[in-house]
Amino acid sequence: MEHEIHKESKKTHHFSGDMSKYLIIHYATEIVNKIKERLSNLRKVENKRFDIWIGMYKGKDVTVVLTNMTSGNTAIIVDQAIQQGAEYVFQLGTFGALQDNIEVGDIYLISGAVRAEGLTDAYAPMYYPAVPDSGLLYKFLKIAEKENLKIESGIVHSVNIYSPYYKTTFNQDKYSPEVYRNLNVVGVEMEVSSAYICSSTKGVKALAVLVCNRNWKTQKEFMEGKKVDWKKGKDDVYKAHDKVIDCVLETVSQLD
Fold this sequence. Notes:
Mean pLDDT: 90
Number of helices: 8
CATH superfamily: Nucleoside phosphorylase domain
CATH class: Alpha Beta
Distance between the termini: 18 Å
Number of strands: 9
CATH architecture: 3-Layer(aba) Sandwich
Radius of gyration: 18 Å
Strand order of the largest sheet: 5-8-7-6-9
Low-confidence stretches: none
């Protein structure tokens, strides 16, 4: 089966013009490779800057992009993908836990994001919420239930500085871990608010599903200057990503 590229595709500054309706993004090469392994008729899309692939899953064209880290990369990719015709955005990734009961390998469907990254101010006022599309969320949950995927939900703290909790920052209210722990925010990461805001302000459906890759104990020990093993539980993170990817692709297969 040949690829059916979205009819409204057009060249943007960074992309060549090839884009499908369904976009999956992740910042890590190893996870993007896992997604690619599940696609048929895979081909690389030539472009100026990003690692972009288009493949097929159960008759649906899927675009996969390696974003690397930061909200800036995420915004550029999602924004330009939407300009080319992307209609569904799946943000996959990881987060560092802020709550004691969250363990490495736990899977969270992200119900909202604290917009602390500074970038989305250019898209919408701060009282505009960074939330997923409820219909897409419901479809994913139905697939997850069918696949017996254990999944929780919660809000993340989206920032645009790597490990802001480990250094003294100017705005402590904006970055203090205790502030967000007390507000029951589940974790800290860098991309979700950008994916949600760039999508929703343009009428595009988005959903973020993340895996915990470090628990609160590890983060706290590092903040205290102790040596920690960042790779502890890495296999659990990869196994969780395998389950998430399968459920996301199954969700895509059942979308119109």
